[in-house]
Every structure is written in C-alpha cells, then in structure tokens.
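Worked example 3. Consider a protein that binds WT7.
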Amino acid sequence: MANEHTIRELSHEDRTFDPPPDFAAQANVTAEEYTKAEEDRIGFWAEKAQRISWETPFDEVLDWSEAPFAKWYIGGKLNAAYNCVDRHVEAGLGDRVAYYFEGEGGDTRVITYADLQREVSKTANALVELGVKAGDRVALYMPMIPETVFAMLACARIGAPHTVIFGGFSDRAIADRVEDCGVEIVITADGGYRRGKTNALKATVDKALQDLPQVRNVVVVQRTGQEVNWDDDRDIWWHDLVDRQSETHDLEFFDAEHPLYIMYSSGTTGKPKGIMHTTGGYLVGTSYTHWAVFDIKPETDIFWTAADIGWVTGHSYIVYGPLANGTTSVLYEGTPDTPHRGRWWEIVEKYGVTVLYCAPTSIRTFMRWGRDIPAKYDMSTLRLLGSVGEPINPEAWMWYREHIGGNNCPIVDTWWQTENGSILISPLPGVTSTKPGAAMRALPGIVADIYDEQGQPVEPGSGGYLVITEPWPAMLRTLWGDEERYKKTYWSQYPGVYFAGDGAKYDRDGDIWVLGRVDDVLNVSGHRMSTAEIESALVAHSMVAEAAVVGAQDETTGQAIEAFVILRESAKDRDDAVQQLRDHVRASIGPIATPRAIMVVPDLPKTRSGKIMRRLLKDVAENREIGDVTTLADASVMDAIQEEMRARQ
Ligand code: WT7
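Given these inputs, the predicted complex is written out as structure tokens:
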C-alpha cells in the first residue's frame, strides 16, 4: 500500500444544488431505489437483470464462493449484440437512430438500429470467413467511426472478445497488447482525422506487427484515403471483405460469464493489465447505470459521451450501455477545437443533445477558451450533464453548470474505473442534492466505504482509501493471463474487499469526495498511466542512466508528467537530450505520455533501501517547499537538485 501519501485536506463545501423539481418529477429513479437495494442487494440485481434479454434464464444471481473470482447470473445464456441491436429491431424500433456520426471534417452518417443490425451481421460473417471462432481475441486500432462499433458488436456476436487499443497509442503499445492477448486478427483503418490532419493508423499497425507473424489478417477500413503499404497475404480492405457478406447472421448464445472484452490499462508496474469483462453482468451493469444515472428516456434523449471508444468510458457509455437501452447517441470523431473552438456546442445545437458526458479536463479547457464561445450556441436542449475520469474541481463544476447547463441541469460526477465496468459512485440526478466536486454516494446495489490503514471504516470528516466491499455485476473477473496479479492488486490490501487505489474522504455529511490515486498511477486528462511505464521507457534510451517520473498538478490536464533523469556520460548536449527523450517517450507509449518537463539532475533522492522518494520530486515539480528529507540515504541530493533547478530558471 502507498505509504508516502497524505490525503489532501479539503475545506467544507457549503453549496448544494437540489434536483430541479420538474426534473425530479420525471426522473427514472427515486430515493426508494436505495432502500430496495439495501434490503435485498442480490434481489435488486436479479430484478435489474430483467433489463436484458436472456435466451436461457439464469438460475443463480451471484456465486462468490471462489472469491475474488466472481460469477454473475449463473446458467444464463445471452448474446450481447442481440441485446444491443436485434431485439430493438424486433420490437419495431429499426428506424430509430442509434448514432448520429459526425466526422471531424463535417461529414455525417445517420445509423439506425436496422442499419446497425445489417452492418454488424455483415461484419460478423466477415470475421467468420477469416476463421475467427468464439473465444478468439480480435484487436481493434481504430478512429472514432461507425465501423469501430460494427466491429466490436460483430466480435460480441460471435463470442470473440475484442481488445480495443486507443488510437493514440504507439506501435510498441500495440505489439505488447497483441502479444499478451494472443491476437491473430487486427482491425484498423488507413487513418483517422485529428486536428485537421490524418493520423497513420495502418502504418503504426504495420510497424507493430513487424515481428508478430501470429497475426494472420489485418482488416483495413478506408477512412482517409491516404497512402498505405500493403501485404497481400495479410491485409484486406474492409470494403472488399465486408461489403459482399450476407446481411443476416445466425445468432449463437453464450454463457453469462463468456468473456466480452479485454481492455488494457496501466497499473503500478510497467506492464499494462488486461482487464477482463464478461457478458451478462457487464451488460446489466452498463444498461442499468446508463438508465439510472443519465435518466435516459430512449424515445426522446440524444445522448453524447464525448470520449474515445478506445477507453472504457466509450465501451460502456458510447457502445454497450446506450445500445442495450435503445438510445440515440452522437458519435464524434475529432477534437473540440477543429475546425473551431465551438465545435462541441455546434454539435449540441445541431443534434439537440439532451445529455452530455465528458471529462473535467475538457471542461477546464473550455473555461480557458472563455464563456463567450458556448454562449454563441443554442444549448437549451441539454437537461443533464455528466463528468468522469478525474476529480472535478468546484470551479470547473460551477462553470459547467452555468455556462453549459444554463444553471438548470443536474450534474452527475461519476466515479468508476476500467476495472469497475460501470459507474459505481455518483449522484442520482432526480434524487441527490449535489455538491460541486463530490461524487456523493454509491449507487443502489453498490457498497462503497473508506478505510484507514488498518482497514477500519473512517468517520465523516476523515479520509482514507476507497474500497468496494461487495461484488457488483460489471466488475472485472480477472487480469488476462494473470490471476495472481488480479488477487494481489485489488483484493490483498484488505482481504475480501476491492481496493480501488484512490484516496477519498467523507465530508461532515458523510458524502464521498474522491481525491485521486494513492499509488504510482498518474491521471493525465483522465487518461491513466503509470510512473513505472514512463520510467521504463526513459531508461530504455541509451542516454539515460536513471529516471523518476511524478505527476504534478496542472490547471488543465489535472496532472502533468514531469520526469527527472540522470544522463549517462555519453550524452553531451542537454537541451538536445531533453528533446530526444521527449520524442522517445512519445514514440514508445504515445503522445499522451509526453512529459511536460524533463529535468536533468545529478542524482535522485533515495531511501536507504534504494526506493526513489517521488514525493520530494513532486514537491520540486509543484514548486513547493521540500518535505521531510530525514529518511533519505543522502540528504544533500535534494540540495543539488534544487540548485540545478535554480540554475535552469
Ligand atoms: C481512475 C480510473 C472510468 C472512466 C475513466 C477513467 C479516476 C475516474 C473519477 C471521478 C475522481 C475519478 C480515479 C480512478 N476517476 N472518475 N468522478 N472523480 N476521480 O478510467 O482509466 O480506469 O481510471 O480515474 O482515480 O481510479 P480509468
């Protein structure tokens, strides 16, 4: 457990915002839901499972006898794609729009549920033709385009777990994941549009697969029309393969615990963890929370999660949750400032978005750009706002409420993690009186607490470690190929209890404030990265002798990466070295991992046992007085570092 951390003190927040009465009057969920779930948690989750269509009903809700390996909805059989697509068409909703796709350059596509059924069936047939069988893993490295959804659902339809790799990751990140996951089929595109330029996805895949002959086929969507290299034996255009397939595909049903997908996420070591989600519980969790937290009315809402499908937020709240609920969503390919800084608000106005879900880092960026920009658009259709990915500071919360929500939209600050699968802690918009910056309380059916070091629940007014004390349907089931790491990472700090790795605090009213990671995991713009991952990228460079990375507070991105490096003798020119290292990290992990600053230092602060004291480096990076140095093996190291800093300024 982290021992170098102190839980940040918080002043009490006195502002509270009751749900607007007209909102509360029409809300999907009332306060009774909490009572119902408290009285009979398992019965509650049995009832919520009825949101989903089961080919064979389950005969037991939860089997926790082999904890921490959970089984939910035992004996149940279902198909995730059927639940997200076909059943809505069968119910006569084929003409309902599933996605309003908006390309960055302004090209658009409207995809109905009937379209989705045809496209998913064709794609499923295509994968079968390539020899993909239930249980085989398929990797996706895609832009934010409808084909990404078709491919995910096609995988789900045939029981082949997908592993979606964020389009901003490097070739090395792809290679690691393909290898760890035993992938034989990769789906990608020639490129996608970002900031008015095209990014070379296919070229990155080519590089990643250089030494991975295990990948039999690469299916390539033509999105940008840019030049690509071609391997005739391996590569196949999506349009050549998928377009000629039959529009119907026979369904097969899978066990509730059949793996649905694997999503890699950073942990405290250099090696990303393959977080595995299964079918039944995940669909119940995402469908229920999407309906309850976002108060979804599928007939009238236009829902927009402004996140990338390559992260769990996109999996759960662009794809599975909204589709399971038969919702109409917006799917936007690009960045918020292309071609202009009003792009998001233009989209809200154009489609009449009613519920918007995004990250605090975006909100802080919009704050910086100024209120005049959103003020130019008609955003009166918005009725609810959501936040996710990192703690939202009260100023950003208030700005979001006023300048985006017109002071009459409830805000749901939703806490959850890739591991959780679905939102766990959040206000309910028709029930909860919200406070700027607080995630408030666990959702019905979820049991959260805050523990001290000894595993005792803390009192209101105190902080500690956030834990989930009972299993929940959408929880991860294991880490791909590493059961030991699964047990150790999440279930060993406090036996039998899920350890989230976040610090949290109960305020005087007993409401939860999530404060951020207590381990060596960084959160940059809501993206998770580990210090160890970036450090190992740095030391892999021949110029670097040693490296330490810390997350320093940043006004826009929440945290920013700052690296301290000791150079080898051979590295002559410092400025040149810093630039080279920056490029090197970007190439090894991806642009999101690029350090804000790289400081060349003569030595690193270490304890007598050789552990780097990152806390002290964080003090330097955040321009604070240096904390206690008495446990350092050599206290003069910090003087030398500070001198170095002063000399550089
Ligand atoms: C970490 C999980 C789940 C979607 C995106 C991130 C932080 C997430 C909140 C929130 C404070 C939050 C936590 C968590 N986090 N939501 N509402 N308030 N912190 O998924 O990459 O798995 O990261 O994001 O630190 O542990 P992820």
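Take a moment to read the result before moving on. Residues 121 and 248 are 5 Å apart (CA to CA). The first helix runs from residue 21 to 26.
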